[in-house]
Amino acid sequence: MILEEYLRDECDVRLPGVLTFGIKEAYRYHEKLLQSTPILREPEMKKAYGHLRQGLVDVSLRWVFEKSEIESEIINKAARNNVNGYTYLEVATKGATISPVKTRSPKHMPRKALHRVESSISPFQLDLFDMDGRIETVSKPFLLLTYGGANHKLEFVELGIPDAANNSWLDKTNILNAPVVYENHTVDEMKKGLELTFTHAAKELLKDDRSDTR
Fold it and tell me: Which ranges of 88-177 would DSSP assign to H, the alpha helix?
């Protein structure tokens, strides 16, 4: 696949594994939080699940990149079309700018959002393929890190190049089983450190009265 080749040739080879690890750990803690916090199991609280999950994903991705050896910049941006303070995460790294978003299934595009439409309409996206069918490397592509599954379970993690203006994908690749490589830490050490971060973050997220705006 074209995107797979691009990730291999132009991005840090550890990138897919770090992204997947961050998403998996966020889902793991989300499930733990639901089981250990009785109030969250009340039917009325289900509307907060999406807010909690997104917050944990953002916290997790920021943390795993800070602890990795991958050169990156984590940016929290405010959505210009949302007056309630909605923010979204972007990871700027070698070869790509990546933004995470939950989708209904691997085939579905995420809900239309102004910032995703604007990001996907770039010189890179408009001139995506050269005559040989390769991705042009004159600028960084904007990639969506999509994830999700039924009943709040994680069933897929993918990277894709969106054509948000046409509500379609230019190319996608599955990274759910990408290997996790940390040169200076074991995976178990990473999980323990992230657990402490999640515990603090979850308390703040549960106090956030904007759960219906996320």
Answer: 114-120, 123-126
- Nearest CA to 96 out of 17, 8, 179, 21 is that of 8
Q: DSSP characters for 56-83? A: HHHHHHHHHHHHSSS-EEEEEEE-TT-T
Residue 1 carries which side chain, given as an amino acid letter? Answer: M
φ, ψ of residue 82 in degrees (nearest 5): -130, 110
What pLDDT, on the 0 to 100 scale, is given for residue 84?
58
Beta carbons within 8 Å of 131's beta carbon, 6+ residues apart: none
Burial of 59 by CB count in 10 Å (0-12 exposed, 13-18 middle, 19+ buried)?
buried
Domain ranges of the chain: 2-213
* Residues ≥6 apart with Cβ < 8 Å to 187: 21, 180
**pTM (predicted TM-score):** 0.83
Low-confidence ranges of the chain (pLDDT < 50): 114-116, 121, 123-133, 137-138, 209-214
